[in-house]
Amino acid sequence: xxxxxxxxxxxxxxxxxxxxxxxxxxxxxxxxxxxxxxxxxxxxxxxxxxxxxxxxxxxxxxxxxxxxxxxxxxxxxxxxxxxxxxxxxxxxxxxxxxxxxxxxxxxxxxxxxxxxxxxxxxxxxxxxxxxxxxxxxxxxxxxxxxxxxxxxxxxxxxxxxxxxxxxxxxxxxxxxxxxxxxxxxxxxxxxxxxxxxxxxxxxxxxxxxxxxxxxxxxxxxxxxxxxxxxxxxxxxxxxxxxxxxxxxxxxxxxxxxxxxxxxxxxxxxxxxxxxxxxxxxxxxxxxxxxxxxxxxxxxxxxxxxxxxxxxxxxxxxxxxxxxxxxxxxxxxxxxxxxxxxxxxxxxxxxxxxxxxxxxxxxxxxxxxxxxxxxxxxxxxxxxxxxxxxxxxxxxxxxxxxxxxxxxxxxxxxxxxxxxxxxxxxxxxxxxxxxxxxxxxxxxxxxxxxxxxxxxxxxxxxxxxxxxxxxxxxxxxxxxxxxxxxxxxxxxxxxxxxxxxxxxxxxxxxxxxxxxxxxxxxxxxxxxxxxxxxxxxxxxxxxxxxxxxxxxxx
Length: 553
Known about the structure:
Helix 8 crosses helix 14. This protein has helices at residues 63-66, 105-116, 138-143, 152-157, 165-172, 212-215, 228-241, 249-260, 301-304, 332-335, 348-353, 423-431, 463-470, 506-516, 545-552; strands spanning 78-84, 87-92, 97-99, 133-136, 176-177, 185-193, 196-204, 264-268, 275-279, 358-359, 364-366, 378-383, 392-394, 397-399, 418-422, 438-443, 447-448. The protein has 3 domains: 63-247, no CATH class; 264-288 and 459-552, no CATH class; 301-345 and 356-448, no CATH class. Strand 1 and strand 2 form a beta hairpin. A 7-stranded mixed sheet has the order 3-2-1-4-7-6-5, with helices on both faces. Residues 9-37, 40-68, 454-461, 468-501 and 522-542 have low confidence and may be disordered. By secondary structure, it is of the alpha+beta class. It starts with 62 loop residues before the first helix and ends with a helix.
């Protein structure tokens, strides 16, 4: 038999002791870096405003900085305007800093339209490019003659007075303002040149343009004291994940719906050979009649329905599909437990709206006790007072759900009589094993999955743009950093981020909740009905109270 060779002996290697490296303490973070380096500029005409001999700034590559593929918007979607030692600078996405030669607001707008190369490409081939955004800091307001804060009267009006010197400068320069005037989100524009828009949006940070309840931490706001470069990165990431900010989170969410489902497209007329606007089939293109049970308070149609001016409607007169606002006292058994586990479903509005069937046409009134059809979105008047949550049928089993809130009222109370419900709520009641006998209904016969990301003709899906923020493992920029001191394996991912690399976590979720949730039908606080025929707020065409109620339900 062959014998095995003897095993080889391993040589023992003596390793020299490793000398520990002494780490010098890091200097504290200041608001402004000691040395500001600027990225080199490509060859431009002599009239460019960039400084000659600039150096490249050392920055991390992000999705927002790499998304500028269009040469028209090579400097990103927005810029933060700041003034330091009399020099006005524009901090762009990716660490780029531009010198701003403008000495007034009209000159700043013209510089943005001609030299800044800011903006964002359209999200749909039939849509339009996003306007450049200029975020003005407190030092920039002082430089351009704007007040550091609005007065009480101006805050209530939401704009500067018409006699302010900056407003007069804009008028003398041939520029125009929208009907909202010069407020926290001002739009300054010139007449378009052919198909090219010439509009600039101004986001005035000291005037509470970025509400801390939506864009920041309410208890500890960070945006007012953030460095302009960090603020540009913060908003640039939001623009890359969702879209360029257009105002509040609700306004931005509705604008995203319109940008991804534009109402019109260019269609060539075979007879004349000219292009004319035509309606898109996958978009909500018209406004239809509303019904009294779905409109908010103070709507003019309520007067024709026989309601008094300040009448408080009951659930039998108004569709009250709202997010839960419910609580109950703990039992003795629950108080004996050592801890309480809270489960929060992130982006619940986005998950509910994904694939939701909504109505795309006007309402159809059904009377004489119609049969409930879960395929027809709309509002149904049903009496669910017979529902007993202690005998809920789930998969053939009887479950006691008396400790849970009632899923048929916003406050979690038991229904006491007939009330208006959305179609998903009644479909859930049937799923739990309860009888649904409608008294009357307003339904939509033409339906569609308007919020479905699988709709053809859309270059960028709608809900995945919000869901990328809801799932941290799917976002490369949200990965954890083990080098952060104090981090451990049990530390949540979002707490492992570096202090300088702040990401907008609240704003995308607030976009979805405000745009697709029940708050879409809230009236504007600055425009109230005064007895005329016009509605308090006309709203965009994609705003549907019935669709909002379906999402909230």
